[in-house]
Amino acid sequence: LFSSLARCPGGGAGLEGFGVGDAVAALLYDGGYAERATALATECFPVPEGLSAEVAAGALSVYLTAHICLTWEARLAAGERVLVLGAGSGVGLAAVAVAATLGGEVVAAASSTEKLATAEAAGAKHLLNYREQDLREATLAATGGSGVDVVVDPVGAQGEEAFRTLDWGGRYVVAGFAGGAVPQFKGNHLLIKNRSAVGMVLMHYRGRQVERMQQSVAEVFAMLADGRLAPPAIETGSLAEGPRFLQRVLDRDVVGKFVLLV
């Protein structure tokens, strides 16, 4: 479990700005399936009025990852086209929603009709089922043949094919390997059309780019609270249901995020 939400008990070192009973969302390393958890002060974030506990807890890690991928790494500009792989996953759906809110034209790629419907509700303009369609050909068709400016890839399995959808100056952001494969990029494919590929791991921002991480959380929470950003698709359950939810994650039987209520 990478994120949690609780009421601040007060007292912790470095927790200036938080009062006893304030709603606090936090990034964790372990121990989130519990009634109490410990987090670094730099990784505790105030939850604004109007943002529910379920949405804040479900959104924090995945929306933060998506926002960093799109803003700090891909430098997405309004009007650019974004291909999101694994668009039914937590990070994928978050990338769809964040990209659409930032003015991107989103092509969502997922493995089922259900996942694509959720991606469409999150803001995707074009839908692509990569079990039934050729990823590159369908993406080029959706973009009038020009391709996309940005690819956000938390999956890995379609890496080389997805990379070839990039237009001139396109940026490919590797955000994970949920599909079990590691994408390979040929140097000549980077050179052609002046493309680039970059990795994004949240640990880098947690340890070395703390101010950027905190800025991204503040922007994400503000957009969620005022309704500009579509919230995550959430399924809730009790703490006792944690093992069942984890098995569903392993079985890839997930659309959006699971949130455990304690």
Set down the secondary structure blueprint.
Blueprint (H helix, E strand, L loop, with lengths): L2 E5 L15 E5 L16 E3 L6 H21 L7 E4 L5 H12 L3 E6 L2 H10 L3 E4 L5 H8 L5 E6 L5 H5 L2 E9 L12 H5 L4 E4 L2 H7 L1 H16 L8 E5 L3 H9 L6 E5 L1
Parallel strand pairs: 4-5, 4-7, 5-6, 7-8, 8-9, 10-11
Antiparallel strand pairs: 1-2, 2-3
Helix pairs in contact: 1-2, 1-8, 7-8
Structural account:
- It is a single chain.
- The chain folds into 2 domains: 3-62 and 205-261, Medium-chain alcohol dehydrogenases, catalytic domain (Quinone Oxidoreductase, Chain A, domain 1, Alpha-Beta Complex), CATH 3.90.180; 75-203, NAD(P)-binding Rossmann-like Domain (Rossmann fold, 3-Layer(aba) Sandwich), CATH 3.40.50.720.
- It contains 9 helices and 11 strands.
- It has helices spanning 53-73, 90-101, 113-122, 135-142, 159-163, 187-191, 202-208, 210-225, 242-250; strands at residues 3-7, 23-27, 44-46, 81-84, 105-110, 126-129, 148-153, 166-174, 196-199, 234-238, 257-261.
